[in-house]
Design goal:
Radius of gyration: 30 Å
Number of helices: 4
Order of helices and strands: EHEEHEEEEEEEEEEHH
Structural class: alpha+beta
Shape: elongated
Largest sheet: 6 strands, mixed, barrel
CATH class of the largest domain: Mainly Beta
Strand order of the largest sheet: 1-3-2-6-5-4
Distance between the termini: 100 Å
CATH superfamily of the largest domain: Ribosomal Protein L25, Chain P
CATH topology of the largest domain: Ribosomal Protein L25, Chain P
Number of domains: 2
Oligomer: single chain
Number of strands: 13
Length: 215
């Protein structure tokens, strides 16, 4: 983990969507700090500083509030109704030596061999896994090499190599994080039926006129 990012926070005396909107308009990101058997506190941090670090994958911060410094871990983010912009953050107080459960983003690297097959698709049911580790060892992301995958191959959570031996997987070991499947090619049922009908039909013999015509 890189050096801990420092954030200055100010206490929010009033809460609610109306006051949160005012804070965001003033360039602040509304947040809540909780945990360690202390009362939750509504705060606001500089939006530019916080979001630039969060987008880089930072999860642990040194928060300064009313002259008191405390270490916190990013636990959750709130987005606007379109799901595009971060409008709220939840921070939990932590001791840098304690173990915590955290979600780590998976970065898939390499060009899978199996994707050259017609109709082959790479599926990623999971793009992050949950693991347990010491706060100071939180990974921003974990690389998963998919270069050797062929059609039908599957990578489970238990196959993902964790950066440190002290880290423990929390996600279900059998959960699928990557697999290559074949897409079914679309078939026109009417055309298929016509082909079957044509193959099974006997040709009509017209060398002689029917009796009705001769009469």
């Amino acid at each position: 983990m890189s050096d801990i990012i420092k954030l200055a926070a100010e206490k929010r005396e009033r809460t609610g969507s109306r006051y949160s909107q005012r804070a965001r308009s003033a360039g602040m990101l509304p947040a809540v700090v909780y945990g360690h058997k202390e009362e939750p506190v509504s705060v606001a941090v500089n939006s530019k500083d916080a979001l630039s670090s969060i987008m880089k994958g930072e999860k642990v911060f040194e928060l300064s509030l009313d002259g008191v410094t405390q270490n916190v871990i990013l636990k959750d983010l709130g987005y606007d109704y379109l799901g595009n912009n971060i409008i709220h953050a939840d921070f939990a107080r932590v001791d840098l030596n304690e173990r915590v459960d955290v979600n780590a983003h998976l970065k898939f690297i390499g060009d899978a061999k199996g994707l050259v097959a017609e109709g082959a698709l790479m599926m990623h049911p999971l793009t992050e896994i949950q693991l347990n580790c010491v706060v100071t060892n939180l990974p921003s992301e974990i690389e998963v090499d998919v270069a050797d995958m062929e059609v039908g191959d599957v990578i489970h959570a238990s196959d993902v190599k964790l950066p440190l031996e002290t880290m423990k997987l929390v996600t279900d070991p059998d959960a699928i994080v990557a697999q290559i499947v074949l897409k079914k090619l679309a078939v026109d049922p009417d055309a298929e039926a016509s082909e079957v009908s044509a193959e099974g039909a006997e040709p009509e013999v017209i060398t002689e006129k029917k009796e009705e015509d001769s009469e």
